[in-house]
Every structure is written in structure tokens, then in C-alpha cells.
Input
Amino acid sequence: MKHNYICLVLMIESDKMEKYLIKNMVCHRCVLAVQSEFEKINAKISTIKLGEVVLKENLNEQQKQDIENSLTQIGFEIINDKRRQIIDKIKTIIIEMVHYGKYDINANLSDILSREVNYDYNYLSNLFSEIEGVTIEKYHIAQKIEKVKELLVYDELSLSEIAFKLNYSSAAYLSNQFKKTTGLSPSHFKNMGKDKRKPLDKV
Output
């Protein structure tokens, strides 16, 4: 089975359970794909949600090898690098905030990241820029622009309503940022009649 999204997975073991953190998992399809692979090795899943699988029982060594191989075959990657874990956690929080409404869109992003990742924001900001080559702020903007594209394609909200929904100060500010990022005005993008959005893990 081919998978359009590359999802990064980090496994953390404890005495009572194993938790698999699924990074860059941006859609329900990713959840279903991961769930299917765990079920194939008879893993007992306690909970599974965007970014996380918690098992009721630890996997044995053979099961661990099997799940690593099967996830790799469908485009997933198991990682153990702590710095990458932090980066992917940041990305997941921003995606959940912008696209799925898990966090208050009006809240301060730096406060949310510091609280959820449990690191000082300056450290997170410097680490993200170092590894990704782009600031957290620019990544956040890029995700918001993809959400704007989605809402424009749906054609259910006016530009002013989209601006309000995504916490822009005005439709004019949104329009300027959209054009700066995409090279197109929102109306031009909308009138193209095509969905030019990117997969969220490619933003």
C-alpha cells in the first residue's frame, strides 16, 4: 500500500506500556494506516489519535522488528533522535492548532509551544531554525496559508470571515500575506478553479 504522507514515529518505552508518538501525522488516513499495521502484529492498542499510539502491553522484540519493517514499507519512519522529536512535536501542535482547532487560534503560539513541549520558547525557536532552516513563525504562517487555500476552495466563507477565523487583524493583511507567500492574490487563487494546496507534511 502506498501512502502519500511521510509520518515520523518515535517509540518511548516505560515499565507498564509503550507509547508510539506519530510525528507529521496530518490526517485521519495516517491514523488508520498506523492502526492497521499494529493490528497485523496483534498489538493491543489502548488509545490511538493524531500523533500518538498507546499500547496496553509492551511489544516483544519480534513485534518491534515487524512493526518497524511494516511502517517503513508504507512510507513511515521510526526515529529516536530527541531533537527531531521536539521539532516534530512543534509541527504537530501547529498543524492541530491551524487545521483541527485543538488549540485556541487566538492564543499566543509561543506560550502553547512552551507549555506543551515543556521547553523555553527561545530554545525551541533556535532549534527549529537550526534544523528546519526556517523559523517557527514562518512555518506557522505557511500552515495558515494552506488553511486559507482550503477555505477559499470550499467557498463557504468570505475573505473577511476567513481572516477572523484564522486570527488575522484584517482581510487586507491576510491578502497581503497570502500574495507574499504564494505569488497570487486570494481572489486570483480562487478563480483559478483548481486546488493548489500542498500536503500538510510538505509545507
